From TrEMBL:
InterPro entries: Uncharacterised_BSP. This is NtPRp27. Pfam families: BSP. It comes from Solanum tuberosum (Potato). It comes from the Eukaryota. The lineage of its organism: Eukaryota, Viridiplantae, Streptophyta, Embryophyta, Tracheophyta.
Length: 118
């Protein structure tokens, strides 16, 4: 059975899907789900069984892995996720990461992995 935090967290996730852009259908599904979980994370409603920062195999792996990565990107530039979402209104390109943060998404992912390596 789901606890109250879990239920509210799921509502935040689903509410995000209502207003977020999806690159006109071109954005990776993992990124869409990651943004929804990022919003949930920032609301303080992350789930105890989510991965810790630095875990995962790919930046767009899905849900919590991507949410933690987006949190890292947003720490480099406050407002990053909002800017990324805005750019996704009419289409999607990995180059959006370069536009906003000056680094490719692959570079950001390896910086992220290096930062949290134990
Ligand atoms: Zn979802």
């Amino acid at each position: 059975m789901l606890g109250e935090i879990e239920i509210t967290g799921v509502l935040y996730h689903e509410a995000t899907h209502v207003w977020q852009w999806n690159g006109n259908g071109g954005a990776p599904g993992g990124l869409i789900e990651g943004i929804a979980d990022y919003v949930r994370l920032k609301a303080g409603l992350g789930s105890s069984h989510w991965v810790k920062p630095g875990q995962g195999n790919r930046w767009d792996q899905v849900y919590d892995v991507t949410a933690q990565f987006l949190d890292y990107c947003n720490s480099l530039r406050n407002g990053f996720v909002a800017e990324l979402n805005k750019k996704m209104r009419n289409g999607y390109s990995d180059h959006f990461f370069v536009d906003i943060l000056g680094k490719t998404v692959d570079q950001l992912w390896s910086d992220y992995k290096a930062k949290f390596r134990a």
